Amino acid sequence: MELYDIVVIGGGINGAGIARDAAGRGLKVLLAEQNDFASATSSASTKLIHGGLRYLEYYEFRLVSESLAEREVMLRIAPHIIWPLEFVLPHEKHLRRAWMIRAGLFLYDHIGGRSSLPRSRSLSLSPQGHGAGLKPEFSRGFAYYDAWVDDARLVVLTLSSARAHGATVLGRTRCTGARREGDVWRVTLHEQASGKQSDVQARILVNAAGPWVKSLLERELRIASPGQVRLVKGSHIVVPRIHDKRHAYILQNSDRRVVFLLPYEREFTLIGTTDVQLAEQDLPATISPEEVAYLCAAASRYSARAITPDEVVWSYSGVRPLYDDGKTDPSAITRDYELLLDEQGPPLLSVFGGKITTYRKLAEHVMDKLARWIPAHRPWTHTEPLPGGDFGGRDYAAVLGEYRARYSGLDPHWLARLLRRHGTLSAKILDNAKTEAELGENFGGGLYERERAYLIEHEWARAADDVLWRRTKCGLHMSEAQRRRVAERMSGAR
Ligand SMILES: Cc1cc2nc3c(=O)[nH]c(=O)nc-3n(C[C@H](O)[C@H](O)[C@H](O)COP(=O)(O)OP(=O)(O)OC[C@H]3O[C@@H](n4cnc5c(N)ncnc54)[C@H](O)[C@@H]3O)c2cc1C
């Protein structure tokens, strides 16, 4: 039976980050994910690498300052899939006073240490500029910066890096049980496609099962959970874009929540999110008509054009696995994380909570917590770029310029989209292609056969959804018939 230093259960962002960090420290690592990687919460976020301006109202200073410092690191190590995004907050003095917002933004500018992003400012909103798409009565506001991330790609690239550092990464493989046997864990894994069951041994077991963190403990491991988890659903809708500028809006709602309107995939606006408490039997989560109505109403309060449910072209829901700190209001529960260690025999570490933004730091904290059982090693993930992110000191525009010059026979807009997915690994897909015809079958939506084959060979894609909605968002730009064609081609990929 194969013996690993660490077995990680869960291939969302937290499991991926832990596997990468541990593998890069020379540990023998296995990660098992029951479905596709990032198929749960980690592809259903608002896709922000952010400090979380609104968390300041809940005094989450530790989380905000760690997140803002992480924003700098993430912009540096993954410049292809993470980029700066300007947010405009239209002012409504009856909801929050201007001095309060200014004080919050001042703190936000400074609490994370040095930042490469522009500082916040107040500004007038005009229909041609920072008020584009809004009702004309919103004439004043504030602007600040955070960053955008392709969340599902962040998971896959983190796992690619883990694999490059020697980790064994298994998708569609469920952990169906684990028990302590002397100094090690015996972990049972069930491979979905073949139905094959096998056992491995682990010196350390890490539970990064996200919304299933407690049920993995109680059902598969038969261990009482040391912490409670609150499952809070958040949904997003996608509508035809409400403006053609690059900035996002952060809108104050009358229930004191905030709703984001984000430029999405060039032609769309992404609107989210909600906070709906769930029970475990409600997983996986789906959006309800009430949530669609809530998001449309929140956006329509500000948008010059009324946003209606019939405009929604796509929607998705995710479940926040929040560490239960006893707060009753779902918006108020901490977004910080807790790492709970069970030492009654070989160690078991469970991850409660966490953000996409802080996953790398969370993984470092996991390594610190496990320091007694693993050889001393320095943190390393803050300097090594994620696959495709090695821009060699150049910015995205400079790299894109080079690609456009080198591949002048290809559509420059498509090249930009490809580079946003794969960074410098795009060259592997393009492989000196001079013309569109050399890219193979055109599935529509910006997807060609060469990329599809690459995703199968290098990024564990097996099903149509893996390709259309997680490795890329090409599905959003395709007709139903085009998506069916991809599904047909993927049916042979298992
Ligand atoms: C609506 C919403 C918006 C958000 N917005 C942001 C944001 O803008 N920025 C930000 O930083 N964070 C955001 N978050 C938070 C962030 O998305 C989550 O904290 C993060 O994705 C959780 O990752 P995870 O790895 O813990 O869980 P998951 O991504 O859910 O991964 C857990 C994985 O474990 C697997 N698993 C479970 N049981 C087993 C088993 N027995 N065997 C094998 N595998 C198993 C599951 O299939 C799953 O893939 C948002 C969350 C939501 C819901």
Distance between the termini: 26 Å
What structural class results from the helix and strand content?
Answer: alpha+beta
Bound molecules: flavin-adenine dinucleotide
Regions with little confidence, pLDDT below 50 for 5+ residues: none
Q: What is the helical fraction, as a range of percent?
A: 25-40%
Sheet bearing the most strands, described? 10 strands, mixed
Alpha-carbon Rg, integer: 22 Å
In total, how many beta strands?
20
Give the rounded overall mean pLDDT: 95
* Shape, principal axes of CA atoms: globular
Q: How much strand content do the residues show? A: 25-35%
Count of discrete alpha- or pi-helical segments spanning 4 or more residues: 13
Give a structural overview.
The protein has 494 residues and is α+β, with helices and mostly antiparallel strands. 29% of the residues lie in helices and 25% in strands. The strands form 3 sheets. Strands 3, 4, 5, 6, 11, 12, 13, 14, 15 and 16 form a 10-stranded mixed beta sheet that branches. Strands 1, 2, 7, 8, 9, 10, 17 and 18 form an 8-stranded mixed beta sheet that branches. It has a two-stranded antiparallel ribbon with strand order 19-20. The chain starts with a strand and ends with a helix. The model has no long low-confidence stretch (mean pLDDT 95). It binds flavin-adenine dinucleotide. Residues 9-15, 32-35, 39-42, 44-48, 174-175, 208-212, 216, 220, 234, 273, 318-321, 351, 354-357 line the site of flavin-adenine dinucleotide.
